[in-house]
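STRUCTURE:
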């Protein structure tokens, strides 16, 4: 079912049929829903959530953004050994919210950092190709870009592992959650 859903999402992205239905959303709420959905996938990993307090509401399509985060969490679980930590960090940097999902796997070969977002790309580990369709990160990039954001892949600088960074614009009139209430 997930394979078919991924193919449909990719087809919709390529045809321009995905039009985000945006509204002001709390990033923490959407991340929380994605984490609940990914519970089974992350069951053999530790999860560390570090979201800055009082992040402003963003103009997001909650369904698309949740799926983008879910795909990143799935990827982190797939490419890092059991028992390692998947870290989700979120903070405001100027006029953007930066959300990072970091794993403790082997990282991404430097020559492949741009390729991980290509359709049907699947990383190899030795002579073994990880299971999957190679669509999850491509879909995440498409969904994030449809909401005027960006996503990049890098390797961690503090230890082995990959870090995927989403940057989303803060609306000009956005207020933090503390002041919005």
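SEQUENCE:
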């Amino acid at each position: 079912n997930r394979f078919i859903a991924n193919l449909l999402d990719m087809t919709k992205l390529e045809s321009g049929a995905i039009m985000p239905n945006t509204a002001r959303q709390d990033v923490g709420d959407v991340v929380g829903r994605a984490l609940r959905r990914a519970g089974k996938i992350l069951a053999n990993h530790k999860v560390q959530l570090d979201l800055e307090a009082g992040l402003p509401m963003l103009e997001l399509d909650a369904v698309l953004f949740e799926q983008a985060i879910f795909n990143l969490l799935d990827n982190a679980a797939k490419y890092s050994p059991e028992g390692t930590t998947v870290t989700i960090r979120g903070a405001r940097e100027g006029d953007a919210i930066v959300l990072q999902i970091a794993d403790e796997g082997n990282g991404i070969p430097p020559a492949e950092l741009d390729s991980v977002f290509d359709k049907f790309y699947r990383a190899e580990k030795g002579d073994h190709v990880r299971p999957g369709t190679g669509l999850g990160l491509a879909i995440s990039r498409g969904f994030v870009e449809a909401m005027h954001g960006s996503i990049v892949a890098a390797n961690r600088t503090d230890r082995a592992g990959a870090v995927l960074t989403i940057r989303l614009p803060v609306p000009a009139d956005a207020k933090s959650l503390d002041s919005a209430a």
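REMARK: DSSP finds five helices and nine strands in the chain.
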